[in-house]
Write a structure and sequence with these properties.
This protein is an alpha+beta fold. The protein folds into 3 domains: 216 residues, P1 Nuclease (Orthogonal Bundle), CATH 1.10.575.10; 109 residues, Immunoglobulins (Immunoglobulin-like, Sandwich); 121 residues, Jelly Rolls (Sandwich), CATH 2.60.120. Strands 1, 2, 3, 4, 5, 6, 7 and 8 form an 8-stranded mixed β-sheet that branches. Strands 9, 10, 11, 13, 14 and 16 form a 6-stranded antiparallel β-sheet that branches. Helix 7 packs antiparallel against helix 8, helix 7 packs across helix 10 and helix 8 packs antiparallel against helix 11.
């Protein structure tokens, strides 16, 4: 084995380990801050009627999304809401990097409230709330040592802003965006001062924790006040009565997803004219970026479920009239595009899209042929690439993480276009609950010249795939898969 390959293996293991380690370094009271912010909203009862009390309350879970990038929940993938057209790659959580998240996620939250179902709108608020709260964590105001202590040494249950009256940051989208920037700078400066006060005490050790906790609590309360301002503003503007607009609703059917059939289907509205032009010119199918609009949502499981299959429904409203198609994609199935649709002002257009089984069936990986792309023109959705400094060396493409719902034997395989490409499957183990480092994932290399191999899942909870190649990943593979062995 060459020195480069040895280094590459080490880099991959460290990278995959780091990907699962994010929540260990997290602003501990996210949920408490979110609940405190919701509790003081002046129109809370109105928003609960419009969106649903349970859906709005679920923000105390959705607010954790950016700390779990690439992972999944029962009904959806975190990246369905975290990665958006205006911000298709993850951002940092520390200033100034986190500043790149606010405008795109503020605008995306407004759009979701105006055009999507209450379920999807409440989920889409999660990333915005998270990034706002992160800026209030003292160690997120700039890079500094003792990160863990400065964001977790506090009595989270004491967060309380009951006397606070949230501010409306603006009466139009642009006014609100300017107000948001100003409010977040106030928050950053507030918590930066608390970091300065707390740092000497934290450096002195655990014995000073009782003196540190009230200081960090001040930042948590200010985070809650800023979050209340943002929620008050985005809900007021996003749920304001609007006249006109077109509506599309539809049904999506697909093969059942093994052991996780509550997962929804991603829906993207495509511009008809751009789609038809793209279809004539493109080399690879699945490159929808140039035709995709910013209007996207999730078809959630609904209605009577067919035997051996899945059924979901979606709805988008307040859309600009025009000619469109609808793209639908779901794990374990081939994506499909609807017939042309004419959306008219004040009218509802309906469609039905059937997704065919993928080969091999029951594949747990997202975008396993690496052809689907609607977020970025240069990169397949749910894949990332790490390129070495030496341009002559191969790059490493990594798939998103897929949950393993059950122990047993799994079949891992690939069909290659590039015979020199190396395919590796990484089986991640459950993260420890304490401050310990996550265990390294187990590695399974696909033997050269072999299409499939197997792996016995025991304590493992998720799987990634990496493809090492000097070509674009869609030119290196036809498909990769992880399927339960029958």
């Amino acid at each position: 084995m060459t020195r480069w390959r040895s280094l590459q293996r080490g880099m991959l293991a460290v990278g995959l380990l780091a990907a699962s380690a994010g929540p260990a370094l997290a602003w501990g009271p996210h949920s408490d801050i979110t609940r405190a912010a919701l509790s003081v909203l002046p129109d809370l009862e109105r928003w609960q009627r419009v969106l649903g009390k349970a859906r709005l309350a679920a923000l105390d879970s959705h607010c954790w999304m950016p700390d779990h990038a690439g992972e999944e929940k029962r009904e959806f993938y975190i990246d369905d809401y975290l990665l958006i057209r205006a911000r298709p790659r993850p951002v940092g959580h520390i200033w100034p990097g986190v500043g790149e998240a606010f405008e795109p996620h503020f605008r995306r939250s407004l759009q979701a409230l105006r055009t999507e179902t209450p379920e999807n709108a409440c989920r889409q608020l999660g990333p915005l709330v998270h990034y706002v709260e992160d800026l209030g964590a003292p160690p997120h105001t700039s890079r500094m040592p003792h990160h863990r202590e400065l964001e977790n040494w506090l009595p989270a249950r004491q967060i309380n802003i009951k006397a606070y009256q949230p501010r409306l940051l603006g009466r139009t989208d642009e006014e609100a965006l300017a107000g948001l920037r100003k409010r977040l700078e106030e928050l950053r400066q507030f918590s930066a001062k608390r970091a300065e006060r707390a740092m000497p005490l934290v450096k002195a050790g655990e014995s000073k924790r009782p003196e540190v906790e009230p200081i960090i609590l001040e930042s948590a309360n200010e985070s809650a006040r800023a979050t209340a301002d943002v929620l008050h503003t985005v809900l007021t503007l996003g749920l304001a009565s609007r006249q006109g607009g077109a509506e599309v609703e539809g049904i999506v059917t697909a093969p059942a997803l093994w052991k996780n059939d509550q997962k929804g289907a991603r829906i993207v509205l495509l511009d008809l004219e751009r789609y038809d032009a793209l279809k004539k010119a493109q080399r690879h199918e699945g490159r929808f970026h140039a035709a995709a609009t910013s209007f996207t949502t999730l078809a959630d499981t609904a209605g009577p479920q067919p035997k051996g299959g899945w059924r979901g429904e979606f709805r988008l409203h307040n859309l600009p009239p025009g000619r469109y198609r609808v793209l639908a994609c779901r794990t374990g199935a081939n994506w499909a595009v609807s017939a042309p649709l004419e959306l008219k002002e004040g009218k509802t257009c309906t469609t039905q899209i059937g997704l065919e089984p993928m080969e091999p069936p029951r594949n747990l990986l997202q975008n396993p042929a690496a052809q689907m792309r609607y977020l970025l023109a240069e990169q397949p959705d749910r894949w990332t690439c790490t390129k070495p400094k030496n341009p002559k060396q191969a790059g490493v493409w990594r798939s998103s993480r897929s949950r393993l719902s059950e122990r047993g034997t799994y079949v891992c395989g690939a069909r290659l276009q590039d015979a020199s490409a190396r395919v590796t499957f990484w089986f991640a183990k459950r993260d420890p609950k304490g401050p310990e480092k996550p265990p390294a994932p187990d590695r399974l290399d696909l033997p050269t010249g072999q299409a499939e191999t197997t792996f016995d899942v025991k304590e493992h909870v998720a799987v990634y795939v990496t493809v090492t190649t000097d070509k674009p990943v869609e030119d290196a593979i036809e498909c990769v898969w992880v399927t339960p062995k029958s």
